[in-house]
Write a sequence for this structure.
């Protein structure tokens, strides 16, 4: 059985490289399409055929479990042939450059490349060298568009709308692609965005992103509808960004006490993988206000929506 | 060598600009026996020696050949990127008659034999003059000073660690003190490597939007401040290799006002481009120090106009596909510039930001004075290093037509106005635009 989706939304561009540049209509189009896949994914029969015959390659230059499996499942449920390629840093050191890899894969005629890379702008560089559609699955500290879309879908399903909500994004803003994509998307949809971090983890010029900036959790979480925590890489301790895990947790880790600064019905999100006891306390992560598991579910639906919307644009579609 | 003949040349009916003496007339310039014979009205009418090549330069500018105070050449060690020969071809096409090459080669130019090698190699293969700067510290390691006296005697025109900063203040102090006895000029790249850290572009909103780690302007000003305190302590002769931001200009102004022997260069990139030009991660615009904000660029051009910044240099740094066709953070810094320095500089003249004489002075007369070279002037008897410029000719830069072995130009496919029509080195025409 193959029921065509009700939404006929087409993403009118060859690639999804970032949230930057997407219109409100495009964002809503993707979210509405994703809603249909949420329902589909809860059925026993989850298979669609809209990507039948298409080849999707997940090209990950940076290790990832959840994003890669989410994209893999999304592609398979739409009927694509999915191949996973994990290119560790060591393989790159053998001398093949990113562009060489792109050209090599391109010769195999994939229809969609899903790419994650540790360097900002790398996915765009690769997209310029191939003929297929490219989806950015995270590039350096630049963008992670499907994460922002799945966050938006999760928020919308729980709060009804995004416009007018206060969203506090907390933690390592400087190194976070999730923060950048979310700031752009939430601003585009009319949310009030606040970033909360020690000054060492805020990039210079952040105040020009249309966000409020807070340096402590009490101020930052006051009146928040959504508290979005970011992962703190342990390497940051060595780079003199923060002195220690315990000091960071003391001031910026989300525990029940700090969560109480937010609205009583505030909801907690985290893109994963979590560092329990570093940026988030286990009780909060697993508590009643947590949307973290739902984010993972929405992830598959959003990625199906992106794949579907881009594939409607592919040649011979 | 393009044309080996050394007939006298009369550049007739030109606008002759000699920034060494605020000389700007319409007239003729006669070149013979490798020197400038005379520049005045009516030489042609009065009769020229038999066999003189007479070039009608109506509407054109005749100026001293440019002296590029900072060019990185791959020889010795990285000839696949640039040789003295290919760099000199690029220079000639850009109106540069003297290249000052940098010591960060492989091996580094840190002993007299390597200076000698470069000079001999240039004599045999290059079509413009080449003078090396020697390393300030052995192996460019910032630990022990080089043989400043012997290197200078061998022909090194100044001392620098190229794109590296000497972080050890004691080493810098000693080098400044010792160099003073030889009247040697120390040229220093002012970027504190710890403050640069993993940064790859100017710190601020645009770096944050691109998700790139920023380099604060303080990385430059901290090092420059330190150096100028050491200059005050030692009385050495010091030249800041590449100042880029308004804050550095303030630091420089204070030092100059207090009478220190301090001068500075700005690269043509920083004078004509800003951080926004990086756009979608264009690695050809990744340079060190990084391109700054538009306010900084404007301040830099104003400082050039006021003479606070003395020199404009190309910062020519050839990088190939291997080092540039990479994600921005992983790409090597550097842009070629020998061929485009003058044309890009003319943008400032056309936009009214800088007058022509000041531009040409910063590219010829001032470097000659600082380095003790004979060029940078059109006085009678000066070496006949002369260029003819069409200031208005519009053209589109096609990287394939560049003479440099590498094509990493930030002016890739840019619309440009003005170009060099003829370059004369020691009385010989080494380049003609046809």
């Amino acid at each position: 059985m193959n029921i065509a989706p009700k939404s006929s939304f087409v993403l009118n561009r060859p690639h999804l490289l970032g949230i930057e540049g997407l219109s409100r209509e495009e964002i809503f189009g993707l979210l509405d399409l994703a809603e249909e896949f949420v329902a589909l994914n809860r059925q026993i029969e989850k298979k669609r055929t809209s990507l039948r015959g298409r080849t999707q390659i997940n090209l990950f230059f940076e290790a990832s479990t959840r994003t890669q499996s989410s994209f893999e499942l999304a592609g398979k449920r739409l009927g694509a042939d999915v191949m996973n390629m994990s290119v560790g840093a060591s393989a790159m050191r053998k001398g093949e450059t990113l562009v060489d890899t792109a050209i090599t894969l391109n010769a195999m005629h994939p229809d969609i490349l899903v790419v994650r890379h540790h360097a900002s702008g790398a996915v765009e560089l690769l997209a310029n060298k191939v003929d297929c559609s490219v989806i950015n699955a995270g590039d350096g500290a630049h963008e992670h568009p499907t994460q922002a879309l799945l966050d938006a879908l999760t928020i919308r399903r729980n709060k009804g709308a995004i416009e007018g909500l206060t969203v506090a994004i907390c933690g390592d803003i400087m190194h976070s692609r999730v923060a950048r994509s979310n700031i752009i998307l939430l601003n585009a949809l009319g949310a009030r965005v606040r970033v909360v971090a020690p000054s060492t983890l805020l990039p210079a010029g952040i105040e020009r992103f249309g966000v409020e900036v807070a340096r402590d959790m009490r101020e930052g979480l006051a009146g928040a509808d959504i508290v979005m925590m970011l992962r703190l890489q342990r390497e940051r301790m060595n780079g003199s960004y923060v002195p220690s895990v315990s000091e960071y947790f003391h001031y910026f880790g989300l525990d029940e006490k700090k969560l109480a600064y937010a609205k009583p019905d505030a909801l907690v999100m985290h893109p994963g993988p979590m560092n329990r006891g570093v940026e988030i306390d286990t009780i909060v992560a697993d508590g009643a206000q947590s949307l973290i598991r739902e984010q993972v579910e929405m992830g598959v639906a959003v990625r199906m929506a992106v794949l579907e919307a881009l594939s409607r644009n592919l040649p011979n579609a | 060598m393009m044309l080996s003949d050394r007939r006298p040349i009369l550049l007739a009916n030109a606008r002759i600009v000699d920034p060494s003496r605020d000389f700007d007339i319409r007239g003729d310039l006669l070149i013979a026996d490798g020197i400038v014979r005379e520049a005045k009205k009516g030489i042609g009418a009065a009769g020229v020696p038999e066999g003189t090549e007479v070039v009608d330069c109506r509407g054109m500018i005749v100026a001293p050949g440019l002296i590029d105070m900072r060019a990185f050449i791959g020889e010795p060690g990285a000839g696949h990127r640039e040789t003295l020969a290919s760099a000199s071809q690029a220079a000639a096409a850009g109106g540069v008659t003297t290249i000052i090459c940098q010591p960060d080669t492989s091996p580094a130019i840190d002993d007299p034999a390597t200076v000698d090698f470069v000079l001999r190699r240039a004599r045999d293969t290059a079509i413009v003059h080449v003078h090396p700067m020697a390393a300030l510290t052995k192996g460019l390691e910032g630990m022990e000073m080089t043989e400043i006296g012997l290197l200078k005697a061998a022909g090194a025109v100044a001392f620098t660690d190229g794109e590296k900063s000497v972080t050890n203040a004691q080493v810098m102090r000693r080098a400044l003190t010792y160099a003073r006895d030889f009247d040697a000029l120390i040229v220093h790249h002012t970027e504190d490597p710890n403050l640069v850290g993993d940064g790859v572009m100017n710190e601020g909103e645009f770096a944050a939007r691109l998700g790139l780690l920023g380099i604060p302007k303080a990385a430059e000003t901290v090092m420059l401040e330190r150096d100028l305190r050491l200059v005050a302590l030692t009385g050495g002769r010091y030249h800041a290799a590449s100042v880029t931001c308004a804050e550095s200009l303030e630091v420089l102004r204070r030092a100059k006002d207090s009478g220190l022997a301090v001068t500075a260069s700005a690269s043509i990139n920083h004078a004509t481009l800003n951080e926004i030009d990086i756009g979608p991660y264009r690695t050809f615009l990744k340079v060190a120090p990084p391109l700054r904000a538009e306010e900084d660029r404007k301040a830099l051009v104003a400082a050039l106009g006021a003479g606070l910044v003395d020199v404009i240099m190309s910062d020519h740094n050839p990088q190939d596909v291997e080092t540039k066709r990479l994600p921005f953070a992983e790409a090597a810094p550097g842009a070629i510039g020998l061929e485009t320095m003058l044309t890009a500089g003319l943008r400032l003249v056309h936009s009214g930001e800088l007058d022509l004489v000041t531009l040409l002075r910063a590219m010829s007369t001032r470097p000659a004075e600082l380095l003790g070279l004979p060029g940078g002037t059109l006085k009678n008897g000066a070496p006949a290093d002369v260029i003819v410029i069409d200031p208005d000719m519009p053209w589109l830069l096609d990287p394939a037509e560049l003479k440099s072995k590498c094509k990493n130009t930030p002016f890739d496919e840019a619309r440009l106005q003005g170009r060099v029509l003829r370059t004369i080195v020691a009385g010989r025409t080494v380049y003609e635009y046809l």
